[in-house]
Each structure stands twice: as C-alpha cells, then as structure tokens.
Amino acid sequence: MSTLKPATPFTGRESYFPGIGPIAYEGSRSRNPLAFKVYNPEALVAGKTMRDHLRFAVAYWHSFTGSAGNDPFGPTTLDYPWNRATDALSRATRRADAAFEFMSKLGVPFYCFHDVDVCDEGDSLATYEGRLKEMTRVLAERQEATGIQLLWNTANLFSNPRYMHGAATNPDFSVVARAAAQVKACLEANVALGGHNYVFWGGREGYSTLLNSNTRLEQENLAAFLRAARDYGRSIGFTGTFLIEPKPMEPTKHQYDFDAATVIGFLHRQGLAGDFKLNIEANHATLASHSFAHELQTAADASMLGSIDANRGDPQNGWDTDQFPTDIPDLVQAVLVILGNGGFTTGGVNFDAKLRRGSVDLEDLFHAHIGGMDAFARALQVADALRQEGTLEEFRRERYASFDEGQGAAFRRGELSLEALRDIASAGEPRRPGSGRQEYLENLINQALLTTPLA
C-alpha cells in the first residue's frame, strides 16, 4: 500500500500545457512519448511501491524560473509564457499555476524551490519578506488542491551581488546578517508548507585566493550560522531533516563543501554531525572527480545520506551541465547504495536538471522528466533483482571474511597491539591475494539489466 497519494490534476486561470493530459504508465511496448514505459507508481518493489521508493520531485528553478536555455555564452531561448506578466506577484502566481499543472500531470509527489524561484526578491528586505509570505500562501493553496508536498526548500544565497564574497562566510558581518534574515524567512515558509527537509547549498561559501581570505574564521562563521538556523528552525516547529549539499567548485574556486567526506569532517569538527545529513548531487560528484555512487556510499557510511539531486554531467564539459539522468548502469549502482542504506526517509529523488538550450518546446519538459523517471524506475528494478539474487553481497562478505572471526575479529575490536600484529605477521607471508573480480561483477550488472523483467 502506497503511503504517498497520486496528485490531483490542477489547472489555474489558464492551462499552460493544454494538449497534454496526465502521464500514465503504458508499459515497455508503448511508443507513446508522453507515457511511462517502466515507472509504474503503484508497482511493488521490495515491499514498497515505486512511488514510495523513489519519492520524485521537480526542481522549481530549472523547470519554471531561470533555466530557460541560458548558458555562459548566451541568454534564454525558451519563452516561458507564465513569466510574461509585468507585476511581480502576478508573474509569481502564474508561475505557481504552471508548476502545479505540470507536476500534477506528471504525477510527482514532491517539489523543491529556492526562495527567489517562487518570487522576485525586490529592492528591500521587507519587500522580499512580504512577497515570500504571500507566495507561501499561494503555494499552500496549490499543495492543498493537488496533494503535492514540499520535499525541501532553500535560500538562494549566491545570485545577488551582495553575496559575491559569500553569505555565511562573507567578510562583512552586515552581509552575514542579511543572509540570516533570508534563511529565517525560508524556514518559516518551510514550516508553513510542511517541508520534509531544509537544504543549505553554499554556492559561494569558499574562497578564490588565500591572499585575501581568513579561511579559519570563515568556516567558524559558517558553523555558527548553521547552528543559529538549526536552533531557529526547531524553535518554530521544523521537524524535518537539515541537509547540506556538497559541491567542489563553481562558482567559488575552493568551496568549503567540496565533497561528502569534506562536509562530514566539517560537521563532526563543529559538533553538528547529529543535526545534519547530506543531499548528494550526481553532477557535483563528477566535478569532485568522484562517481555518484561513491558520494552516496560515503554519506551512507557516516549515516548521513539524506536525499539526492538527480542529474548527470557531460564528460566533455567541465562545468555543471545539469542534464537529465539517463545512464541506467550508473543509476543501478546509485540505487544499490540507497537500498542498502534502507531507502529514503524524509529525502527523495529531486530532478535538479534542465532542458538543453535547443529544446524550446514546453512539451520537452515532459519528455525530459519522463525519461529520468523511467531510468530510475528501471535502476530500481535491476538493483532489487541484484540484491535478491545476492551474488554481489556474498562476494563482498567472503572478501572480508578474515575479519569475521579469530585474530581478524580481535583486530576489529581493537584488542591487538602493533607488537601483537608483528608477531602474527612473523608466522609467514600472507597468502596469495584473491582476485577482486571487477569485470565479473560489472558483468553481473549488465546481465541483470538484460534479464530482469520490465514489469
């Protein structure tokens, strides 16, 4: 039985996707581009529905606000009709209408947003706070009408020029205070909307040169900022999960949240490890020279895997291209980690991905999300089949079997000194190393992709 309910269709004052109805599951034989071939939200996998396993979310910023075909070398190419209104609140309300029409037709249970995605910031703090409060009311109405929930929101503390030198790590205290006011407003919006998580992404929390940077002070200030946000969030009734999203660079050259291991170390050093988990993005892992699965496993090993941003990078491009995820073998390894960690609790799969510059039809938003959802659904099927078959887990268990009993188990318990280990080693050379059998194990994934039933 699914704990998440299907979205109720929504259309505002006008329909922005009038020729498209609810996206249905039609199975692998379907050639309808506006239908799911694999993702069947009610299908049971490992005791839960696909909807409950994957907890899909749409990124408000990429799909409805800013990522309209722009890139570092040119302006937008996609003309969003909902953004044509001249009045800021009218434009924001129309954008919300378009978002909830799209998301309800797609059938996702969640969405995510930055504050300035849902409303223009305005020319003063008071204007910003008023607009966000009004749009929180509008979003609450749309959530009530559709049943779609807020997976997480966050404050955009990187786009405005005031944050050119950082937000929580800015050398000017007045900027730090302004960033805190923004986070305060976002936490209030989160509680009003019943958000499951709250995310911090330090887009400019870092430095470009040590010649003008006090890195120790900046990181201490970042920790103080996170503590203040945690305390305020809990004081107003936020019961969800605080998440930090690692990224190694871009826009800042050296970011303090470089990768999962760096963030975990920072949280432990600052006494925050019990309050925060990680939101892992695939393209950020690529920029850190890691695989998506590596970052997920690092977070899981520390009991800090909270949620994911689903996308992929381009191996020929050195920046955050945020393409929709379609590499199923790569996703299988990611989902294996997620299932091995017990699945999501408050987190989910947020499509932090955008259309390509040349994809200028609104229908392309559906094609992109359908493809990503089908890819994750197939990865879920294959990962579950591999776990049920058990060969991967059994191979890992046997590979480390020498630590399960005897002297190996004593070593794991911390009972053997270095002198004792030397005496053990004097008995003779270790046996010939066993094969890691990487090729064989990779073949198991390909074999499961080819043989696991689609439905």
From TrEMBL:
GO cellular component: cytoplasm
InterPro entries (alphabetical): Xyl_isomerase-like_sf, Xylose_isom_bac, Xylose_isomerase
Protein's recorded name: Xylose isomerase
Active-site residues per Swiss-Prot or TrEMBL entry: H114, D117
Catalysis: reaction(s): alpha-D-xylose = alpha-D-xylulofuranose
Cross-referenced HAMAP family: Xylose_isom_A
Primary residence: cytoplasm
UniProt keyword annotations, A-Z: Carbohydrate metabolism, Cytoplasm, Isomerase, Magnesium, Metal-binding, Xylose metabolism
Cofactor note (record): Binds 2 magnesium ions per subunit.
Similarity remark: Belongs to the xylose isomerase family.
GO BP term, example: D-xylose metabolic process
EC number, as in UniProt: 5.3.1.5
Binding positions for Mg(2+) 2 per the UniProt entry: E281, H284, D320, D322
Binding site for Mg(2+) 1: E245, E281, D309, D352
Assembly and oligomerization: Homotetramer.
Species name: Alkalispirochaeta americana
Cell compartment(s), UniProt: Cytoplasm
Obligatory cofactor(s): Mg(2+)
GO molecular function, one term: magnesium ion binding
